[in-house]
Sequence to fold (349 residues):
Amino acid sequence: MNIIITGILGQDGANMAEYLLNNTHAKIFGVMRRSANPNFKNCGAFENDPRFSFVYGDLTDSVSIDNLVREIQPDYFINFGAQSFVGCSWDIPLQTFDINATGVVRCLEAIRRFKPDCKFYSAGSSEELGDVVYAPQDLGHPIRPRSPYGASKAAARHVVKVYRESYNLYAVHGLLFNHEGTKRGEEFVTRKISKGVAKIYHSLKNKEIFDPIELGNLDSKRDWSDSEDFVDGVWRMLNQEKPRDYVLSSGETHSIREFVEKAFATAGIKGLWSGEGINEKYGLASPVLPYRIDLVKINPKFYRPAEVDLLLGNSSQARQELDWNPKISFDKLVEKMVKFDIEIYKKNV
Ligand code: NDP
Ligand code: GDR
Fold:
């Protein structure tokens, strides 16, 4: 069995490769795009596995996608490659569309022409729902994206349906809510916080001066899970009798503010909120010090032109029909990320 995974250097691609190497006998072909300085830090657990190889490919280059499918003859094509950062999708909207929407058409066309029985996974997102009209959100929720990223994923959703129905392909577009972990990119808010807390933890311990973590909107709410639980759900989605989209989510929602509190509490640091709007701060709660020490402050540059305020997923169908049971709770996820970053920071200093 041959499996192509795009986005192999990213969070989900690397977790999926690990999962498949542990749970199947498949050969894994991890697609990376050409880069002057590729970062392999997520791939340490499998890069030397004899059943794993890196291959070059780019979702904006149909020749490369065609060649990969023609030569590898994959049984599964798992497309995690994307311009995945919502925040910068306003800065690079065309590239976001080219990779996330047209890129999916390139994959589907290659499969249709060169390996029509290959099963295809498209990485859909709760950002497609955007300006939500009810909670918890399920597959029936209207598509109301609020960013070029959300719109690009919505386009991918429609085109996957079109190819599935027109050409009878096994193609699914999962509706996945936020998922994080120790491989999460550093610009996403959870990792930014866990890394920032780790740095502050060591600075306080060593009595060193530090800068507060700078964040944008603290009030948005997200349904956060662990990426390692989600790759298992994605694999189950790909192995049903008939192709069908599913929601994967935790079914809990928490604000950025709550994530901040939980992350500092995990490191044994107690803080207090004060001020409002762009003057809001989270300061060290210390009865001893005569001056204040800021742990978090607002920087308006992290506000977005339009925000998705509330995400909360209903994944009951996946839990029932796929027998999917996520193991990591929100509390465990925050703890895992903060403890990991505290260890990493210690090693790197
Ligand atoms: P990451 O940003 O960690 O990984 C994305 C990967 O895609 C990166 O390794 C990147 O390569 C690669 N990539 C970017 N552009 C191209 C291109 N033109 N051709 C080939 N590869 C490219 O994202 P995640 O692992 O978190 O997410 C995986 C997928 O799931 C994405 O499609 C994302 O949009 C989607 N998703 C993620 C959610 C989440 O909460 N994590 C929730 C819902 C959907 P490089 O390393 O070179 O930059
Ligand atoms: P999101 O993730 O946009 O939900 O997309 P991100 O972590 O970037 O933002 C979550 C929320 O936090 C607010 N926020 C900040 N965000 C970032 N990145 N940096 C900050 O400093 C900051 N301060 C506040 C944001 O405004 C937002 O409300 C993720 C990605 O993985 C997508 O690829 C995926 O499709 C969706 O999750 C589901």
